[in-house]
Sequence to fold (400 residues):
Amino acid sequence: MRILIIGSGGREHALAWKLAREGHKIFAAPGNPGISQVGTLVPSTDYTAVAAAIEPDLTVVGPETPLVAGVVDQFRAAGRPIVGPNQGNAQIEGSKIHSKELMKRLGIPTARFVRVETKEAGRAAIAQFDYPVVVKADGLAAGKGVIIAQDRAEAEAAIQTLGPKLIVEEFLIGEEVSFIVLCDGKTALPLEATQDHKTVGDDDTGPNTGGMGAYCDGRILSVADSEAVMRTVIEPVIAETGFTGFLYAGLMMTKAGPRVLEFNVRLGDPETQPLMHRMDSPFAEVLMGAAMGELHSAELRWKEEPSVCVVMAAAGYPGQVRMGDRIEGTEDCGAVVFQAGTAMGSAGLQTAGGRVLGVTASGRDLGAAVANTYAAVAKIHFEGMHYRRDIARKGLKRWE
Fold:
């Protein structure tokens, strides 16, 4: 097939890598230098014009912004198969207020919350919660719109930073899990569970980021827990909305069971990197089934070996990012290096964004996968680089 991938990050590179290995012809708009090694870049964000020019058999949308802007509706109006939600359903991620109200209406387990639309209301809302308390911006924020405030001063600062339209909610205790399903409007096909690492520093310290690493291991959720998530979280949304595309439930596994922290309407980044690395069945046909409303008989197979992705970030991330640093060592490091914030300069590959690389490897068990990934990371260098050194540590403590 001729497959168009919309986006330019590590998630899109991982999709392109997987689908190219299946023998399909890949186009990416606008793409990145890594994707150019497995497909053709179309340096444009006028996606309808791109599709008219290259006539793809299938389009897969990576990031949330074009989904919220209605790209799926535009493609469907032109009769082009595409994987993603319509503009109305994209609001499940586009507005935290909309998402939390949907959960409340459908009885989906989530944290107690208050919606606020003025800073004054926000200050009143935080008085209703113990600390720490969670403050979330209503709209899209590239994974950085959540602040966990430890006291009133931090909470009021968060309201000033993220407001005025906000969700204020209770802080949940447990382990985070990313649970992603592919939907065709009626059927939801679950992918393997993954665990993301949101904060910039080891031991879950520092400000939130778009994700500093993730791992995929078949033991993250039990069969019973997965079935409970499908029954109490995923299926109510599909039944209510006729959702199509990727529905991502960010979960907190609490003592009382799974609770939804957030919904996203696309594959996660960096979760996609270990997912594509570990998937052991063709993906393109399944994606086409989702686009055509024919997922009822689809299945996915997974390798036994866990996969780990470590994100290497640029100087300053997640704040003001320095760009233009030369990247060395990616070619023969012993892992798959998915590019995200990169560009080609006069001296070769260089940094061009906050999350620069997603170094991904597998191993016979989780400990080996972690060791293999960090061995590859050690061979890569760019000035100012930083990364977490504890990706998958929670899994290692639990199982090994």
Observations:
- Residues 307-399 form a domain with the Glycinamide Ribonucleotide Synthetase; Chain A, domain 4 fold (CATH 3.90.600.10).
- Residues 362 and 368 are 7 Å apart (CA to CA).
- The two ends are 42 Å apart (CA to CA).
